Each structure stands twice: as C-alpha cells, then as structure tokens.
Amino acid sequence: xxxxxxxxxxxxxxxxxxxxxxxxxxxxxxxxxxxxxxxxxxxxxxxxxxxxxxxxxxxxxxxxxxxxxxxxxxxxxxxxxxxxxxxxxxxxxxxxxxxxxxxxxxxxxxxxxxxxxxxxxxxxxxxxxxxxxxxxxxxxxxxxxxxxxxxxxxxxxxxxxxxxxxxxxxxxxxxxxxxxxxxxxxxxxxxxxxxxxxxxxxxxxxxxxxxxxxxxxxxxxxxxxxxxxxxxxxxxxxxxxxxxxxxxxxxxxxxxxxxxxxxxxxxxxxxxxxxxxxxxxxxxxxxxxxxxxxxxxxxxxxxxxxxxxxxxxxxxxxxxxxxxxxxxxxxxxxxxxxxxxxxxxxxxxxxxxxxxxxxxxxxxxxxxxxxxxxxxxxxxxxxxxxxxxxxxxxxxxxxxxxxxxx
Length: 406
Description:
By secondary structure, this protein is an alpha/beta fold. The chain folds into 2 domains: 4-78 and 147-217 and 325-392, FAD/NAD(P)-binding domain, CATH 3.50.50.60; 87-142 and 220-322, D-Amino Acid Oxidase, Chain A, domain 2, CATH 3.30.9. It is built from 11 helices and 19 strands. A hairpin with a 2-residue loop joins strand 9 and strand 10 (181-187). It is globular, with a radius of gyration of 21 Å.
C-alpha cells in the first residue's frame, strides 16, 4: 500500500494512530495538529490507565496501550515516567460490592492481576482514607498513571522515527472529497492531497465529520478534577489510585498531593460550534460553581477523605472529554465516505485506550484483521443522530454523570 494518510489531531489518540500507521506499513503519514502536540484537551487529562472494565471490549485496547508504552521506551531509549501503582476499587455499599466483585470476575477472565482487600488492607495502602463505611475493595495491581502530554509526544516521536511527518500549528479548515472518496484536506495555508483522512480531532471532530455527512455520536462534555495542597505525611507518588463508585469519584497521586475527580450530576455539555480553536484560557466552569460541586456533590467523597477541608484545594482543572451516550468509544470507518476513518469519542479513556485506537485504525486501513472486536464502537450503533442537537448532547453528558468506573 503506497497511499497518503492525513491524521487530524495531535492528542494521545491521533499521535497513536500516526504511530501505528507508520509502524505497520508503508503509507505516507502526515499528522496535523492545530497547536502543539499534546497541548489541547489531552493536557488536562487525569491520565488514569485502568484495565478492568465492565465494558469488556475496552480491555484489549488498554492492554495495547500498555504494550505500546513499553515498546516506545525501547524505541526512544527513554523512560515514559509511567507509575505502575495499581488501583483500588472501593466498595462501601452492597450495590458497589456486587459491581466490584463482578469486575474481579472480568479481571480473572482477562488474566488481570487483582486481589480482594479488606477495609484494613485498603487503609494500609491509603493512609488518608476513612474506612468506617468501607466493606473492602479490589486491588488491580497493573493499573498505572502517567503524564498524558508525555504519552502523546512519545507516540509522535516514535511515528517520526518511522518517517511520519508531524505538522504542528497547522489548522485544517476543510475535508476535500469527490465521488464519495476523500481526496485531501485544506489547511489555512495549503491544500494537501491524500487518499485517507483519520479524524482524531477530539471535541472538534464533528466540525470536520459533518462536512462529509458522517456525524459522530459524541459530544464535548465538561470534566473537572481538583488537586489538594501538599501533604507528604499522607500522600506519595507510589500510592495506589482509588475509585469510589459510591461517590462517583476517583483519585490518584500527584506528587505529594492528591488529584481527585467527582462526576457532577449537572452533566455540562457544549455545542462543538461554540468551542474556540484553542483551549488556552477557555473554561466551562466558574470558581463559585466548582466550589458548589465540591461541597455538595463531593460530600460523599469527603466521607472517605474527611481531611479534605483541612488540607484545602490548590487547583481546579476543567477540561473537555468527548462522551458517547453509552460512555464508550467511536472507532472505525465512515458509513458512506471512502477513505474516512473516525478515532474519537473516548468517554474519558483517551489516554488508557490510545494504543488500541491506533492499532485498530491502522489495521483497518491496511486491510489486516483487527486484533480485537471493535464492533461495539461503531458509529452506527445509535442510529441517525444530530451531534449538534441539545437533547442528544445532554444524553452524552448524562453518560458521564452516571459513570462509576475509572
């Protein structure tokens, strides 16, 4: 295959796609990013890489990401900074205990390294946690976290070693096509002829996809996390991450502080047409609103972490995730436009699944049997949709609000 492929979007998914296409075959690959690689919504990701999922089809994609991280450390000759600390899914009700025990069964099915911990066992690993209401939890030992911008840049550097071209600070304005076939892209500066376009533009993906009548079933949805003040007596970088289904919350170490997220019930979403070209200085939350969420909807999380009020919050980070109505992914080829592929709608798992996204898209392009079943992620699964419709966008936002896993 001697075709020219343009990948639009330099986040973790777009860079992974460019890496795998350049690695698996001889196509000419150009990655186009409007800003710097890894500087968009990728840079605001909490970056948990968790393997055990109730949506089983996602697990092989996360496994592929972990394989890619190891491979790139060898290829690039440098550490990725990945922190393999594991994660603890904490049960504090009969309902969460049941769902976590089910997650352990799934972990066993996929040969994931896990064990059940008592409340005291959890307290031993997480000295800051209040276990008064804790029944126990599942310790997923191979889960990890890393800086998302590092992962995106490593994928880009590895792709460049495979002769992919990385064009930063380049804005794609239009997809070009003729007779139902992609023919190129038009940037602010030039027209680039190509045979294949991969839309990995994240929150902006539908602004491109709808140009060729291929709406993607996802919407930009607000995500929020906070970082506490430093407390070296309580936190350190090698502590396990933790997921609290009963509080719709998660946390991970952030140096000698803690990063934690709470999925607010409001499910704030935005029309892609209203997004700025650059996220610098753009926020979907006001300071008083994030305090309201923390004090009211974060009340359950504070039962596990009562010292939060004492320690205080040093930072609130708001970003955008792209959610589907089923809180899953969108991967695959377009319905009608030949040469157009979709790699977006990550539902908060863009860092964890990036390698899987990249490999699946590359194998589809080269006509190689895809390494795992991606049928659950096809863009047709919801039937006809309008990604700009307020009701549809709210369905996507509600999917985030109702999400319990990491």
